Amino acid sequence: MGGSKVSFFPFFLFVLLQRLLELFIAKRNERVMRQRGAFEFGQGHYKYMVMLHVSFLLAVLLEVTLFGRSESPLWPVLLAGFVAVQLLRAWAILSLGAFWNTKIIVLPGAEVVAKGPYKYIRHPNYMVVIVEFLLIPLLFQAYFTAVLFSILNVLLLRVRIRAEEKALMEATAYEKTFANRSRFTPKRY
């Protein structure tokens, strides 16, 4: 590992700390939303999401350390992509405010947030996760983790997005608000 390259452990620690911060924000937002009368939906799959994300991080750690993986020759490009999706994640979280959560917490009758990246696509945060499940392992040539967990993530997101959209359609004007927005492909307005 050269001096100008990203080293794995500081990067991995950054990702872990970021996830812990997100859990703190989610817990705080959950309290706020429940005080306003919000309900949780999709509890059945949530534990699998947690297991998937924890397993993903462990798999990256194990593949990189046990198999001696090093930075990809494309690490500057991959790192730039990682930074870009972190900015998109922050934009999504800030745009949703107290409505952002790792769980499906819905406030019946609430106005649907359609600003920030939500002005262009329905699920920018899930798009970030999809890209991260590729970029984080590819940054350190952990190809097995990238492929396996990308497939598992897409399968779980199919369940998650259906549950989330169903809950939002039943409790808010989600369908009307997002009728012309793609889940992941930005459109111009």
From TrEMBL:
Coiled coil: none annotated. Its main location: membrane. GO terms for cellular component: membrane. The chain crosses the membrane at residues 6-25, 46-68, 74-92, 133-156. The keyword Cell cycle does not apply. Keywords: Membrane, Transmembrane, Transmembrane helix. This is Isoprenylcysteine carboxyl methyltransferase. The keyword S-adenosyl-L-methionine does not apply. It is a multi-pass membrane protein. It holds the Pfam family ICMT. InterPro entries: ICMT_MeTrfase, Metal_cation-efflux_comp. Gene3D superfamilies: 1.20.120.1630. It is found in: Membrane. Signal peptide: none annotated. One of its GO terms (molecular function) is protein C-terminal S-isoprenylcysteine carboxyl O-methyltransferase activity.
